[in-house]
Amino acid sequence: MIDKANLNKTNSWPFIEAKKILKDRGQFIEKKGKILLQTGYGPSGLPHIGTFGEVARTSMIVNALNQITEIPKEIITFSDDMDGLRKIPENIPNTQVLEQNLHKPLTSVPDPFEKFSSFGEHNNEMLQKFLNEFNFKYSFKSSTKLYKKGFFNETLNHILRNYKGIMEIIIPTLGKDRQKTYSPFLPICPETNKVLEIPVIEIDEKNSKIIFDNKGKKLEKSILDGNCKLQWKVDWAMRWYALDIDFEMYGKDLIESAILSTKIINLLGKKNPNGFAYELFLDEKGEKISKSKGNGITIDQWLKYASPESLSLFMYQNPKRAKKLYKEIIPKSVDEYLDFIEKGKLQSDLELLMNPVWHVHNSNMPKENYIMSFSMLLNLVETSNADTKDLLWKFVKKYKKNISEDNQNIFDSLIGYAIRYFNDVIKKTKKYKKPNENEKNALEALLKTLDSCSDNMKPEDIQTKIYTAGKENGYKENLRDWFKLIYEVVFGDENGPRMGFFISFFGLEETKNLIRKKLNNV
């Protein structure tokens, strides 16, 4: 356990939320002897990176709770797989199978991938697969199974008894036409197996039945054992009530739904769980990332180019700020991850509680020594033409003889990620600058400056020489433009590594040959 005084002082958001849970839900937690946190998943599309983010962030709150209390905690990952399929996802094969089964519960829609008994089951399995790969601790719950096994029956009857009060909460939020047909209960059609949104004619509270108007025909259905499901906002309140949830986070787009679900659970006689509204993830165009569209970056794509920990770091930072999530932000995230590891080595216990990587690693900070940034490693991949880990390791060890793969697990992984990222993402978009006559003269002056350097010089001293060359060749007033010129000609990018540090790894002669090669190719 961390010193209690530091726990009281820290204002990192997982600890803020953990302390709120214990304060607001203390009496309920004490009564049941457990803290229950829920994350939701709508399996109408493949699991995406936002789904991961919700579980990762909730896990960080659990880690914070673990530092404060020994009361058992459990994360419930709930799949709303009894929901009707409303539209066809854009990133799915065999879409005709889905088109033929629109509006059926997701667990009644055939699997277009032809691997599982239903589309819902396929997506549930994909969800659990990647959560398990990240070693998250959670309990998976299927809406379909809980409805059909009767787990919700008692709560469903309670909701039926409060039908009028629930209608008074929901109806004012609907348009006039929808007000005429709205019912909290959605029957499953016995003929088509579709989830129907039809009006109620009569309620038989004693026998737990409702008579619906199905296009002029009476349809009598039990509300129990999966014969009906609830509308979304009522369904959410039912889960909170039946599962006795203490905390759930949700996207900013669900704030209004959370307000209504809160009113409903309060009507049913229970206090609502603590909530946390996070901002949404956007793709490179600034559009919301969607399961059905498959836009933005997928989890598999991120993990191809960077570590799970770097993704968790991205999720930790600024959860209440909208962030763009696409391939090009990966190097920045990885470098921030490495920087936070380095900072952690010199931080006090209180400072560590504010270090994002402390939360990413569940309080177990990595101790590995820093070698270089991911951005610089990407430059080395290009300039060395290394296409395998072994080749790049040989290159690195040529200039850093004391480095061993056995002691550098993080860096060893970075090498593999860097090779794949450069070949898949960077190589295709490289645009090398054609310097004008003045710029070419400045770069040739840089070559002469490097002639006076040696491989034994410190990176900082080489960097100073490069600064001097810029000042003496027209860039005294704006050294940023000087380095921008070097980066655009040599690396095909506006940004690049600290040149002194790069040269100390890549080698003085190799760097001069690289610059000459770029100038000769102009």
Q: How would you describe this structure in keywords?
A:
Rossmann fold, 11% strand, Arc Repressor Mutant, subunit A, 3-stranded antiparallel sheet, 12 strands, alpha/beta, 25 helices, 522 residues
**Adjacency order of strands in the biggest sheet:** 3-2-1-9-10
Could you say what the CATH topology of the largest domain is called? Rossmann fold
CATH class of the largest domain: Alpha Beta
CATH architecture of the largest domain: 3-Layer(aba) Sandwich
Largest pleated sheet? 5 strands, parallel
Structural class: alpha/beta
Strands, count: 12
Q: What's the arrangement of secondary structure elements?
A:
Elements lengths: L3 H6 L3 H12 L1 H7 L2 E7 L7 H20 L4 E7 L15 H5 L19 H15 L5 E4 H6 L4 H9 L1 H8 L5 H6 L3 E3 L12 E5 L4 E6 L2 E6 L5 E3 L1 H12 L3 E5 L3 H14 L5 E5 L2 E2 L16 H7 L2 H9 L6 E2 L5 H15 L4 H4 L3 H5 L13 H11 L4 H11 L9 H18 L10 H15 L7 H17 L3 H12 L8 H8 L1 H13 L2
Parallel strand pairs: 1-2, 1-9, 2-3, 9-10, 11-12
Antiparallel strand pairs: 4-8, 5-6, 6-7
